[in-house]
Design a protein that fits this description.
By secondary structure, this protein is mainly α. The chain has helices at 26-38, 44-52, 56-68, 89-124. Among the domains are: 26-68, no CATH class; 85-134. It is elongated, with a radius of gyration of 36 Å.
Length: 134
């Protein structure tokens, strides 16, 4: 047999659509760093990380954040990603003016169509419609 075949009997396999990134509160990070710093015996930090389901890189990053003062009580963790910039008032004005231009162009087109209809009706009735030229 060239290919390995996996047969699952009596179990349901659940697959989530997308993995969700774990997020930790500043209080949790402070508690873990404090426990890690307090551990003296060999293997205690490893046991702590296994118990909490963390990696050693978490501990390194959180210690650096603590040293920078980012984990101090009362601080709020920063959200990742781009920050939404407030819209430029000039851009808002340009968008408003463009909407007005479109609206007024539609209105002008309707008015020209009505004038054309009035000219045709006047011509049918034998009363020529006076134009701006005459």
């Amino acid at each position: 047999m060239d290919q390995a075949e996996v047969v699952v009997v009596g179990q349901e396999i659940e697959v989530t659509e997308h993995a969700k990134r774990r997020s930790f509160t500043a209080e949790y990070k402070r508690r873990i760093v404090k426990e890690a710093d307090a551990s003296k015996a060999a293997g205690e930090i490893g046991a702590l990380l296994r118990r909490e389901g963390l990696y050693s890189s978490h501990l390194c990053v959180w210690r650096a954040a603590r040293d920078r003062g980012e984990l101090a009580p009362g601080t709020v963790t920063k959200k990742r990603g781009l920050k939404a910039a407030p819209p430029d008032p000039r851009d808002l004005e340009i968008a408003r003016l463009q909407r007005d231009v479109v609206r007024l162009e539609k209105r002008a087109t309707r008015a020209e169509a009505l004038v054309d209809i009035q000219k045709k009706v006047a011509a049918l009735l034998g009363r020529p419609f006076e134009t701006e030229d005459s």
